[in-house]
């Protein structure tokens, strides 16, 4: 057997081993996100059907992101004591209870509390999955694996949103179906013989003050993007119901940004590897702002609203990946994990504010205030990036690079914003 043939056989064996080691996790994630997409959209429709004030609906949506911040922190602690599979199973069980709890109650306060619990659970599941996948990945397959992760998470969530028309949001059935899917998500992970989750390693801590001093561009962008994504995700079902979109369109409208993000995440993130990341982010923010203006001018019930909202999501969702990658370009390798954790927290705090921003604009301007919020917030991102480019004009020097892991985040968020392998630049400067 020649050396080349042996190399091909070994590569095929590695691919088979990797597929066996990850299939359970990917199937479980698909079921979880399918449940999450259905649940979140059903809750938005139910809140509107019950006639809740827009401000109250904003509180319920913001509770998810508050839970997201808490969950990402608490799960890191749990992984070191009970491990990945037990943490995954416990979070899925808690998620099932929360989804059923919303279905059998009819008051906004328990809905908000249970929505916080679902945010905690989804954030925890993302931490489990990404830690697991990053341990299994190598420099040769990391980009492809994270791209597959992006497709599974975004696609399953969008699929869940899209089938909301099949259920009556006022009765428990749809919530029960979502809970069933979340319960089934435990089976492939816990019964996969080949699953070999890692034991997380402790990393050095870094403060937000330190990161703000080293890379203010990354932190400022991350926070503003969090607000914008919280606004995108928070009230789409409320908007769609309020303007009278056909029932079959409500789920599609809510899913449109996720679908757009899934399609454009890779090319936009890849472009930021070859160009100044700030310029790529500026282009994306300006594009999202312009698309928001188009949405304001488009008739509310025209089918092009679905298309343009998808374009807006496709341009906006990669902005987190760009901000995170830019931050990691300037952070020492031993601080990467700690910096990623701080970025998630900062993004989550911003996302908590997003639903309040869109709710306030809808109260003042009516349903079109939803789109005006997105125009203003993406305009703020664009202005901030212009200021930072003028303050620090020299981008990082393009030199040979090594592909390393960059933790992903959704948002998701429901919609998880997933990064690809990034380029580690060798640089002379210590701040941006």
Describe the structure.
It is a single chain. The protein has 432 residues and is mainly alpha-helical. It has a single domain, classed as Growth Hormone, Chain: A (Up-down Bundle). Helices cover 75% and strands 1% of the residues. The chain contains 16 helices and 2 strands. A two-stranded antiparallel ribbon has the order 1-2. Helix 9 (216-234) packs antiparallel against helix 14. The longest helix is centred in the first third of the chain and has 47 residues, at 3-49. The protein starts with a helix and ends in a 9-residue tail after the last strand.
Described by the principal axes of the CA atoms, the overall outline is globular
The CATH topology turns out to be Growth Hormone, Chain: A
Strand content: under 5%
The CATH H-level superfamily is: MFS general substrate transporter like domains
- Helical content stands at over 70%
Give the number of DSSP strands: 2
The number of distinct structural domains comes to 1
What is the distance, rounded to the nearest whole angstrom, between the alpha carbons of the first and last residues? 52 Å
> Which CATH class applies here?
Mainly Alpha
Catalogue the unreliable spans. Answer: 5-14, 398-429
Calculate Rg over CA atoms: 21 Å
What is the mean predicted local confidence, pLDDT? 82
Oligomer: single chain
Count of helical regions: 16
What CATH architecture label applies? Up-down Bundle
Strand order within the widest sheet? 1-2
Write the H/E string, N to C: HHHHHHHHHHHHHHHHEE
Largest sheet: 2 strands, antiparallel
């Amino acid at each position: 057997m020649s050396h080349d043939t042996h190399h091909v056989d070994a590569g095929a064996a590695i691919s088979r081993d990797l597929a066996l080691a990850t299939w359970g996790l990917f199937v479980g994630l698909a079921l979880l996100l399918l449940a999450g997409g259905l649940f979140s959209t059903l809750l938005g429709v139910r809140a509107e059907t019950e006639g809740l004030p827009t401000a109250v609906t904003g509180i319920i949506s913001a509770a998810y992101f508050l839970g997201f911040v808490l969950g990402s922190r608490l799960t890191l602690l749990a992984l070191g004591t009970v491990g990945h599979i037990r943490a995954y199973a416990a979070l899925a069980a808690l998620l099932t209870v929360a989804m059923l709890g919303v279905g059998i109650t009819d008051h906004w306060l328990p809905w908000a509390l249970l929505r916080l619990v679902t945010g905690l659970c989804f954030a925890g599941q993302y931490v489990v999955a990404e830690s697991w996948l990053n341990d299994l990945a190598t420099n040769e397959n990391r980009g492809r694996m994270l791209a597959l992760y992006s497709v599974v998470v975004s696609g399953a969530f969008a699929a869940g949103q899209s089938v909301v028309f099949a259920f009556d949001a006022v009765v428990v059935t749809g919530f029960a179906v979502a809970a069933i899917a979340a319960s089934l998500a435990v089976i492939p992970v816990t019964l996969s013989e080949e699953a070999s989750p890692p034991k997380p390693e402790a990393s050095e801590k870094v403060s937000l003050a330190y990161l703000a001093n080293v890379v203010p561009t990354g932190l400022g962008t991350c926070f503003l993007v969090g607000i914008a994504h919280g606004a995108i995700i928070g009230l789409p079902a409320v908007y769609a119901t309020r303007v009278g979109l056909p029932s079959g369109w409500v789920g599609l409208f809510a899913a449109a940004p996720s679908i757009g993000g899934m399609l454009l995440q890779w090319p936009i993130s890849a472009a930021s590897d070859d160009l100044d990341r700030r310029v790529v982010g500026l282009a994306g923010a300006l594009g999202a702002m312009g698309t928001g203006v188009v949405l304001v001018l488009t008739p509310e019930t025209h089918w092009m609203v679905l298309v343009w909202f998808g374009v807006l999501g496709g341009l906006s969702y990669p902005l987190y990946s760009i901000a995170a990658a830019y931050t990691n370009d300037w952070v020492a390798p031993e601080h990467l994990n700690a910096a990623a954790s701080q970025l998630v927290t900062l993004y989550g705090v911003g996302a908590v504010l997003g639903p309040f921003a869109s709710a306030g604009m809808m109260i003042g301007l009516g349903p079109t205030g939803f789109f005006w919020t997105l125009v203003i917030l993406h305009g703020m991102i664009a202005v901030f990036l212009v200021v930072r480019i003028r303050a620090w004009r020299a981008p990082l020097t393009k030199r040979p690079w090594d592909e390393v892991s960059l933790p992903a985040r959704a948002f998701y968020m429901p919609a998880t914003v997933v990064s690809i392998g990034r380029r580690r630049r060798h640089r002379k400067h210590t701040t941006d």
